[in-house]
Amino acid sequence: MRRYSVERIFLTDSEGKPAVCRAGDGEVIVNASDPEDAIHLFVREQGATLVTEPSSFRSFSAVAVARIESRYLCLEATVCDGSSTD
Q: How far apart are CA 43 and CA 66, in angstroms?
């Protein structure tokens, strides 16, 4: 298991219009086996729905689009340095 930072970047506001401020609420740290798993864990914990399946980049980062209520957001999971939890 490794620690991953999941960053949220909002694409739309609560009314479904393009987000004026794309910044999220900060990052969430999750323990997962890989970056795709980190995104799936975040989605389950937040009650979100995946719009796209996670796409992985060289096994240390993954991105996906998700929806929480009426807001769409981009999720990026990145391995935290020195993050082995074994």
A: 8
For residue 74, the one-letter residue type is C
Cα–Cα separations (whole angstroms), residue 61 to 18, 31, 35, 57: 25, 14, 6, 5
- What tokens does 85 get? 């939890």
Token output for 27: 């990052």
The Cα angle at residue 73 between residues 30 and 32, in degrees rounded to 5: 15
d(CA 29, CA 31): 7
The whole-number pLDDT of residue 82 equals 64
Q: What is the pLDDT of residues 69-85, one digit of tens each?
A: 889 999 999 999 765 55
> Contact at 8 Å (CB) between 57 and 41?
no
Give the C-alpha separation, 18 to 20, whole Å.
6
